[in-house]
Amino acid sequence: MATQAVPPAPGPAQDNDDQFERQFFSYVLDRVVPANAVQDPNQLQILSDADFEWWWAIASRTSGLLKVLMKENATGRDFIQTTAGSLTGTAVFNGINIDNWAGTAAGSAAFPLAVPYIMPATRVYSLLFTDASGALNTVELVFSGFKLWPRPKVG
Amino acid sequence: MPGAKPYSLLHTATNPIARMLPLQKEQMMVYRLGEKYPPIGWLADHCPTWEAVTLVLAPLGNQQVRVNLQRDFTLISISVTNSSNVNGGFRAQLYDIKKQLRFSDRGVQQSLMGGPIGGGAGFGPGTFFLREPYRFDLADSQVLVVAQNLENVQNLIQIALYGSALRFNQVSNTAPEFPGGSVSSAAPQGGG
Question: How many angstroms away from the CA of B191 is the closest CA of chain A?
Fold first, then answer.
């Protein structure tokens, strides 16, 4: 008589299982932004081995007089935007003040997205920096989260 | 009274990090409290979005701007910076235009609305997380920002509204769609 596999008991844990193993991982972007640069372009590409689940934005900079724009190249999506720019006295929208976006982990200022975002493997993201400090601005951005490794189904 | 629910969360967006907040740093810290997957709910297919409202306020002047929001924008947190804060910086008030709702009965002082996340000048991260997210769920929603400068000098301020918006190419069963179809490439729905 063949033994019959006992199905696991249903429950919240099983219902929430998306069949991925999460590996802690961070993508890092380093840049020395030239003085008074306007929308200085930088690119960050997700590695081809796995999708990335983005949970935290972490940033350090020399001067807070720095703005950031973030775009997803494949879709053209702007993560940072406003439609109010023409009304506010600012001629060009150069992004969010970096201190409004994220801070350092040491300062307990890593920003939790709360709702994670999946960055597909090989996708490219553009980060554009605008400096108003008048000096070199050394920036490091960290996208912290998880690599998503598909888990082979058992049985 | 049987059946009475003085405070019901029915039809209320639930903050995905609400149950993952330590008492000391409730504004910022996230950890998992015996829960492997957070209760994202209907925000699962959404995308992080920062609406960065930048204003150049004249001395003691005021301005108002109207921001078009992406589909199903759900406000999660507010962070604020300004260039001058001697007399309190500025006051600001937010309105949901489509629902004709205001978020406060009068302007909120900048320091009580939020602060910057990074470079906290000794105060630590100052972003303010809503206890429950606020959902701009009507089609073509707009937020009106009214700001009044409290300073005697020009004040360059930025109010960053962080939230989650539905991806433009994501079909949703819960969020209202723009006229013409569920996605931009979809065929028009119905007649007329």
Answer: 31
